[in-house]
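In the current project phase, our protein records have gained a structure token line. A sample record follows, to show the layout:
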Amino acid sequence: MKKKCIMALIIGAAFLAQGCGYEEGTDAVVTVVDSTPTPEPTEKPKATATPTPEAAAADSTADGAAAADSTTAGAADPAAQTAATEQTPSGINVQAQDATYYAVEGVNLRSDANAEAEFVAGVLSGESLKCTGVCDNGWIRVDYNGQTCYASGDYVSTTPPVGAVAADTTAEDATAEAAQ
């Protein structure tokens, strides 16, 4: 029995000494696996400009030079600038302006020019808003169903959506047909 145990130990040591059949050179092949390439960053979409009092004055004036002159004159005359500047309930300056803005995507109308203000109404993408002023923080003041509300300038644009003209004429056609 002692001879069998010694024999088993010698055979086991022989297998371990060889590395369980591992031979240098043939089993030492490294396989390189191609990984997924790192994606290239895509170009960010261009954001629409946030309305500013200066841009609003330029848009409402037919002649760009006249807008520059009126802006310069307003800056030189503090009384004229004060008359055109109003404030929101929280004290943010509002530059008076009459323009039409369109919701670029769904936008919440609020009671003041900040995201924490009370929610008044929601507006769907493409809906027109009657702007009555542009705030210093980039929000716009709108008249919505006879109520003064504020919308973030990040979600509105002065450019009408592509289908807005067709939708307006379709609505007018439907109204005309209903009247007949």
About this structure: Residues 168 and 174 are 10 Å apart (CA to CA). The mean pLDDT is 72.
